[in-house]
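Case study.
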Amino acid sequence: MKIAVLGTGEVGRRLATKLASLGHEVTMGSRTADNAEAGRWAAEHGGRHGTFANAAAAAELVVNATSGLVSLAALESAGAGNLRGKVIVDVSNGLDFSEGFPPKVVTLDGRSIAEQLQRAFPEARVVKTLNTMNNTIMVDPGRIPGHHNVFLSGDDAAAKAEVSALLRSFGWAGEQIMDLGDLSSALATEQLLPLWLRVHGAVGSAEFNYSIVTA
Amino acid sequence: MKIAVLGTGEVGRRLATKLASLGHEVTMGSRTADNAEAGRWAAEHGGRHGTFANAAAAAELVVNATSGLVSLAALESAGAGNLRGKVIVDVSNGLDFSEGFPPKVVTLDGRSIAEQLQRAFPEARVVKTLNTMNNTIMVDPGRIPGHHNVFLSGDDAAAKAEVSALLRSFGWAGEQIMDLGDLSSALATEQLLPLWLRVHGAVGSAEFNYSIVTA
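After joint prediction, the assembly is written out as follows.
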């Protein structure tokens, strides 16, 4: 599949590398065409790179791995026409550290970042997932033993099925993928980040994940 | 131990019943001395009941099981003098359903309910815990098989140790009790409620809990 990964940070590079290793044709998108990080990644992993618009235009599926604080701007830069009809896998989180620790969870107009993206691009099909864990675990769930979960939120059932298949290709088992419902449920997972940071402090590692254990 | 349970709802009654069954002398507190629910509970379980102030005055330890929307008012009614030096086990959550589902998590001035209570009653020793699960599991963690967690937040180490001992008497094992740090970490657990509601919808039951699984 032709996939755009928007964002050149650790999360974007991790996802892009995994997707390329699975045989997808990956273009890493960034604000400018000459982003050094994107260039290095493309050279090392046989991928492409370009602007957000270049990447989105070429793609059948778009991964938003930009910071939630700038995701709306990044997708505007990608362009509505380049996103039309496409699944957007939104793994973003918005954390504002400007007032120190703990950071504030940034939502836009009190809604999740995912919902704001969906509103801004009504013809795209936004699915929120993977935003509740360290990037190492996103693409290699076997690092954590036993049962643990990845959440899925979205308004489009077919888009969620497509993202679920992508998660399975990363190593997630069906029983680990929990569909939380429509896209309004994305706020619940975006608000999980402060707990993630506290648990990170308590266990002294980012190599953990949440598991829902039922009776 | 002499324990006040403030709040006559399902959570308050569940905790009061467990505490009474463990041999503690429990007084259930409510806004008025003649609360019918509190009267019924006291008659059935050999406990006492009275106003918030009556309950707190008699207690060595206070459990805040009121709705987070009214907790500050409830503790003001209990009276600062009756709370001085005492551990307050705060199990409250503030959910505002006035605009429908999903509810908004209510924080006070952007801070957790627990922190607001601590600020209002600086001589009390507030410990946040048990607010991330159904009340059935609070007092009977064995209902959920295997590893799962209860979180602890508070500024007073001795108070946290005391609450940890209380949790053990409920059946929680030491490795299930995760200390998240100072009381500012309570916001992270109060913000977990929207996810709880979505998971409740996804699994179709309140009989689940969160587990932190490490590599």
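Observations recorded in class. Residues 2-203 of chain B form a domain with the Rossmann fold fold (CATH 3.40.50.720). The two ends of chain B are 40 Å apart (CA to CA). We will return to this complex in the next lecture.
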